[in-house]
Design brief:
Length: 548
């Protein structure tokens, strides 16, 4: 027992000394100064602040507790996506007096606690609408003294509690891209220092907050390629039958009149049927008393009228058109006068005659020979002021105007359009109370003429070498003129109401168009351009808000 006590003595002392040593070590450790947080060489840091000068990038090895960061005279120009995501507690960020030109879409992602953001005296020329995404706590934002000329729409939408905004010192271009800002300034609760326009000249030095919204004309239009029909065609005629929308195309290369049907689900033109026509130049659909007929005009082999049989769901030949009278048809025009249906055929041969046919009970019958021994190229029916007229254009003489005589039940020659010695195509339109003629010419300028009560006067000449087709048309409140050429691209003109003239609007890459056709299809407004040498193109008319 004594020996056991003797052994325990040293062991107990060792245990006590060890415990005392550990206690003294803890005491010494408690008296050491705190470890200095990491700080890049270009920065001065405390536990929760960092001030950096001449940094080559956003410093990564900063204390995670930093709530305030200042970058001055940085040696980089772009703030990339997620540049500050490693500092999630950041509340104050000052990026003044640098050479920043670009800020990434999500440069400030992860900074949900940031309240103050100053990006002044830089060279920033553009921002993304997502630049400030995720800054839900931001109350103060300054972009003063940069090179901003515009701001993307709704750039400040993510900043729910923004109270102060400074945009002074930027050369804002007060065009349609700034219209949204004018609207936002009128309704926001954010305090915004006065900002001024640098351009355009009419708004220079005007306060943005005071710009009247009515001064911004920001709605424009465009024709965009919508569908390509992989075949040439020389005429296009849309029509409605049994509540469906169709399109008849003359395709001499395919020896057919092709009928397409509009698919309202797929919103495309689809193949529907074909009528044999080895040399078709025009396929004119007519719906008479609920029955569908298609007049097929051909250069060779005679011209015919086909009838759609809903029982057999096919076209059958109804009758021939007199080949002695109509030898070389070039155009067809269908119309009604006093309840009667007519169609007229423009004949371009010297031996034939431009002729009028009238529907009677079960067929179309020859009614009148209008214009013999001339190379007629186009027809246009005009029903204005209760006086139906038919205008016949010719490649060998001035266009002739015929007026319907209700006494004789025939067209009577009324005069010529002497301002134009020849014309390939003739179309008309009304603008306000005035009536106009559009005449295309293959050699020489095409003409726009206005009816002055007793005669036409020239309003405008349009360069159009090689033109065989033109078409004025109205889409909504926008009036256009499509003018084709065999030697250059198609020109789209838009009517200027103030100047009462067409102004060049857009160029379409259509090769050798032979017609233009406007076709509303549901909510799609389409312009068809049948081409003799290439594909038939379908363009869609779109409205563009430049302030969006």
């Amino acid at each position: 027992m004594a020996r056991l006590r003797a052994r325990r003595g040293p062991m107990c002392r060792l245990l006590v000394l060890s415990t005392l040593g550990f206690y003294l070590m803890l005491q010494a450790s408690a008296k050491r100064p705190p470890k200095t947080p990491p700080c890049p060489p270009s920065c001065s840091c405390t536990r929760d602040t960092a001030f950096c000068v001449d940094s080559k990038s956003v410093p990564k090895n900063l204390p995670s507790e930093v709530i305030s960061l200042t970058l001055v005279n940085a040696a980089f120009s772009e703030i990339q996506d997620g540049a500050f995501s490693h500092l999630p507690l950041l509340q104050f960020l000052l990026l003044n007096s640098n050479k920043f030109t670009l800020i990434g879409d999500n440069a400030f992602t992860g900074l949900s606690h940031l309240q103050y953001l100053f990006i002044e005296n830089n060279d920033i020329w553009g921002l993304s609408k997502f630049t400030f995404r995720g800054l839900k706590s931001l109350t103060h934002l300054s972009l003063a003294n940069n090179n901003l000329q515009t701001l993307p729409r709704d750039i400040f939408r993510p900043l729910d509690i923004l109270s102060d905004l400074d945009l002074r010192g930027n050369a804002l271009n007060c065009d349609c891209k700034v219209k949204w800002l004018v609207e936002w300034l009128a309704h926001t609760n954010t305090t915004v220092a006065p900002i001024y326009c640098a351009s355009p000249p009419r708004f220079q030095e005007h306060k943005v907050q005071d710009l009247p919204l009515r001064e911004f004309d920001c709605i424009t239009t465009d024709f965009v390629l919508y569908q390509t029909l992989s075949f040439p065609a020389v005429s296009a005629e849309p029509f409605l039958y049994s509540s469906d929308l169709y399109l008849a195309l003359a395709q001499p290369g395919a020896s057919a009149c092709t009928i397409l049907k509009w698919d309202y689900v797929e919103r495309q033109l689809r193949d529907y049927d074909r009528i044999p026509a080895p040399s078709a130049v025009h396929c004119k659909p007519m719906v008479v008393d609920g029955q569908l007929y298609v007049v097929v005009a051909q250069l060779f082999g005679g011209s015919y009228i086909y009838h759609w049989d809903p029982n057999t769901t096919r076209f059958t030949k109804l009758q021939d058109i007199d080949p002695q009278r109509v030898r070389k048809p070039n155009d067809l025009e269908a119309f009604r006068i006093d309840g009667d249906w007519f169609f007229a055929v423009a004949d371009s041969s010297k031996a034939g005659a431009t002729s009028l046919y009238r529907w009677h009970q079960n067929g179309f019958y020859s009614h009148q020979a209008l214009h013999a021994w001339h190379r007629d190229t186009d027809l246009e029916f005009v029903d204005g002021e209760g006086k139906p007229r038919l205008i016949v254009s010719s490649s060998s003489q001035a266009p002739v105007i015929y007026q319907w005589s209700r006494t004789q039940k025939q067209f009577v020659a009324q005069g010529e359009v002497t301002q134009v010695p020849d014309a390939q195509a003739v179309k008309h339109f009304r603008a306000g109370r005035d009536s106009y003629l559009c005449l295309s010419r293959y050699i020489g300028d095409s003409k726009i003429l206005r009816w002055e009560g007793t005669r036409f006067s020239e309003v405008q000449a349009l360069p159009s070498r090689g033109s065989l087709a033109l078409q004025p048309f109205l889409v909504g409140g926008h009036r256009y003129l499509a003018l084709g050429s065999d030697f250059s691209f198609t020109q789209i003109y838009q009517w200027d109401e103030g100047r009462q003239k067409f102004v060049r609007f857009q160029e379409l890459a259509v090769q050798a168009p032979r017609a233009f056709c406007y076709m509303p299809a549901g909510d799609a407004q389409l312009l068809l351009a049948p081409s003799f040498k290439g594909q038939t193109l379908v363009y869609r008319h779109v409205v563009v808000d430049l302030s969006a």
